[in-house]
């Protein structure tokens, strides 16, 4: 049980880091930081 929870936490952490790196690479491509399909969560983070 503990191993399953630990594995789920590691997967969540890896996914968060991957999405953060992907967002940084998109911002480096677009200087304005506007992605072609903007989701409402990213606009809320900028406020």
Characterization of the model:
The chain starts with a helix and ends with a helix. The longest helix has 28 residues, at 2-29. The radius of gyration is 14 Å and the shape is rod-shaped. It contains two helices and no strands. It has a domain at 1-30. It has helices at residues 2-29, 40-46. By secondary structure, it is mostly helical. It is 74% helix and 0% strand.
Give the tags:
47 residues, 2 helices, mainly alpha, single chain
Please describe the topology of this protein.
Elements: H1 2-29, H2 40-46
The helix content is over 70%
Radius of gyration from CA coordinates: 14 Å
The biggest beta sheet is recorded as: none
Shape: rod-shaped
* Contiguous helical run count: 2
Strand content: under 5%
Q: Which regions have little confidence, pLDDT < 50, spanning 5+ residues? A: none
Say how many strands there are. Answer: 0
Distance between the termini: 40 Å
Average predicted confidence as pLDDT: 76
Q: Which structural class best describes the helix and strand composition?
A: mainly alpha
Give, in order, the helices and strands.
Answer: HH
């Amino acid at each position: 049980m503990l191993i399953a929870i630990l594995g789920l936490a590691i997967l969540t952490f890896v996914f968060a880091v991957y999405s953060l790196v992907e967002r940084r690479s998109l911002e480096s491509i677009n200087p304005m930081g506007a992605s072609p399909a903007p989701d409402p969560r990213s606009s809320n983070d900028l406020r």
